[in-house]
Amino acid sequence: MSAVASESLPHIDVDPFSDEMIDEPYAMHQVLREAGPVAYLPRYELFVVPRHAECQAVLSNWETFISSAGVGLANFRHEAPFRPKSILLEADPPDHTVVRTVISRIMSPRNLQRLRELFEREAVIMVDRALDKGRIDGVRDIAEHFPLKVFPDAVGLESEGRENLLLYGDMVFNALGPRNALFERSMEKYKPVSSWVMDHCKREALLPGGLGHLIYEAADKGEVTLEQAAMLVRSFLSAGVDTTIGGIANLLLTLARHPAEYAKLHANPGLARQTFEEGLRYESIVQTIFRTTSRPTEIAGVSIPEDRKVLTLLGSANRDPRKWADPDRFDVERNPVGHLVFGTGIHGCVGQMIARMEGEIVLRTLAQRVKEVRLTGPHRRHLNNSLRAMHSLPLELVAA
To answer: What confidence score (pLDDT) does residue 22 get?
Structure first.
C-alpha cells in the first residue's frame, strides 16, 4: 500500500459517479489531468489514469491489467457480478481468444458490406420522416430509432419488445460504476428485462440469415459451445445499441451547437465518417472503464499493488492536450485517429465496426438532405455511471 501513501501520488477527493460530475465532467477531467499521469481517489480506493498515453498503455497491456476481474468498479475476485460475466468483455486469453476469433470473422468487412445497403435505405426513410415532422426529438426520432431498427434486424431479432434492449444496456453500463442510486434505479426491472434478453439470444428466437445465426453456425462446427453462442448474442445486444445511440445523440447536439461545423459537413458529406469520429472524441459516449492489476506494476513511475482497480478515464483522455491540439474545440476537419471511445488492444469494442458504419450513414444522409440542425429548447441528459447519454433533444431540421 506504499503507493497509496506516497507523497508523490495526488489524492483527489472527487466522485466521478456523482450526478453533477456525470452531467458535466470536463472541469473534473482537467483537474485530474493536471494533477498527474496517475491519481488516487480515496472515496473508492482506486487509481485513476486521466491522460491519453497512460490510458492507452493500460488498455493495451491485458496481461498486467486484466478484464476477467470485471471492467467496472466491482472486483469479481471478491464479489459476484450482477449477471453472468461477459465471455468477451470480462474475459482474458486464452478463453477470450477463442470467442473473439469467431466474432471477428462474423463481423468481417464482407458481411458488413452486405448490411450497408439496408442501413442506407433505412436512414433515408428515417431522415425524410423527420423532415416531414420538422420539429423532432433527436434522441427518439433519430438516435434511438436507427440503431434499434437496423442493428437488431442485422442480428435477427424480432421487432416486438426492442425497448428492453435500452433498459438492459442501461443496467449493464450502470453496473460498471458503484452501487449508487443510478444503479439501483436501473436494476428495478432486472428480472423481466434480463429474461427477455436471454430468451431472445436463443437460436429459435432469431430470424434466419442474421448475424445471430452465424454465431450458432460456429457452434454447430464446434468452434464455441451452444451456451457460449447464446452469451455472444447477448454481448451483441448489450454492447451494440447503447453506445451507438449515445454517440449519435451527442453528435446531433454538438452539430446543433456548432452550425458552422455542420455547414462544412453539409457542403461536403464525404466528411461524415471523420465527423462521427470527431464527435466520439469530443463527447465520449463511454466515459469510464476499469481494469484490475494481476501483479504489482508501475504506471508512469507510480507503483500499483496487485489486485487493485485502475480507472481509465476515457472521456478525459480524449480531450488530453498532450494528444490533441485545442482538444476542447469540435472540428469536423480534424482526423482524430487514436481516440479511445471503443477501447484499444484485444478488448477493443467488438461492435465498433457496425457502430462506425451506422454513425457514418446517419451523418451522410443528414448532410445530403438537411441544410440546418437547430436546437429548439434545452436538452436533457440521461445519467448513467459509464455512458454520456441523452434523454431528450428538441431539434428542428431544415430541408436542403
So the answer is: 97
d(CA 4, CA 302): 10
DSSP assignment letter at 286:
B
**Helix (H, G, I), strand (E, B), or coil: what is residue 273?**
helix
| 2-399, CATH topology level | Cytochrome p450 (1.10.630)
Convert 179-244 into a string of H (helix), E (strand) and C (coil).
CCHHHHHHHHHHHHHHHHHHHCCCHHHCCCCCHHHHHHHHHHCCCCCHHHHHHHHHHHHHHCCHHH
- Per-residue pLDDT tens over the stretch 60-107: 999 999 999 999 999 999 998 888 889 988 999 998 998 989 988 988
Nearest-angstrom CA–CA distance, 279 and 289: 19
b/e map of 120-157 (b: 16 or more CB within 10 Å)?
bebbeebbeebbeeeebbbbebbbbbbbbbbbbbbbbb
Say which residues have a Cβ less than 8 Å from residue 117's Cβ, sequence separation at least 6: none
Whole-model pTM over 0.90: yes
Main-chain phi, psi angles of 282, to 5 degrees: -70, -40
Comparing C-alpha atoms, which of 40, 88, 44, 38 is closest to residue 215?
88
* Cα→Cα distances 361→156, 271, 380, 389, Å: 20, 11, 25, 20
Domain spans, the chain: 2-399
